[in-house]
Amino acid sequence: CAKHVKPSLSDLKTLVGQRNGIVCDVLDAARPRGIALEYHEGSNNAKVVVNEPPQSNLPPLLSNTSSCERCYKNRECMMYTSADNAGNKSSINAPRTNLPHRQLIDHFTGHLKGTDLEYFRKWDRLI
């Protein structure tokens, strides 16, 4: 004989929240992105369609820059931050000193031009 356990309300809320998070991730992953080929009936020619890449869902930078200075992933993090700022049209003309992490960003990506960052941003999102 099997015993049934009645879940508490907080358990049910947690399960529904976890399910909703998974559904959001599945829907995001199912969205067309990258390059697709469209074939039309009766034609051997394919049309190449380039879909817009999805926005990155990276967390914001930490407010404490000293934690970022000691982080083992600071190079990659500053690269993504710099590329996202280069792709943000509102921040292109903004002064370079408006970010609290400007010294770290300049240290790791100061040698890159805007076209380099745009290239990185484009291919990272397509992949």
Secondary structure blueprint with pairings:
Elements: H1 9-30, E1 34-39, E2 46-51, H2 65-70, H3 74-87, H4 102-109, H5 114-126
Antiparallel strand pairs: 1-2
Helix pairs in contact: 3-4, 3-5
What this model shows, in words?
The protein is mainly alpha-helical and 127 residues long. Helix content is 50%, strand content 9%. It has 5 helices and 2 strands. It has helices at 9-30, 65-70, 74-87, 102-109, 114-126; strands at 34-39, 46-51. The chain has a two-stranded antiparallel ribbon. A hairpin with a 6-residue loop joins β1 and β2. The radius of gyration is 22 Å and the shape is flat. Mean pLDDT is 79; it is low at 90-97.
Keywords:
2 strands; mainly alpha; 9% strand; two-stranded antiparallel sheet; flat; 127 residues; single chain; 50% helix
Structural class: mainly alpha
Distance between the termini: 52 Å
Which band does the percent of strand residues land in?
5-15%
Number of helices: 5
Helix proportion: 40-55%
Number of β-strand runs = 2
Main sheet specs? 2 strands, antiparallel
- Low-pLDDT regions: 90-97
Radius of gyration: 22 Å
Enumerate the strands of the largest sheet in spatial order, edge to edge or round the barrel.
1-2
* Apparent shape: flat
Query: Which whole number gives the mean pLDDT?
Result: 79
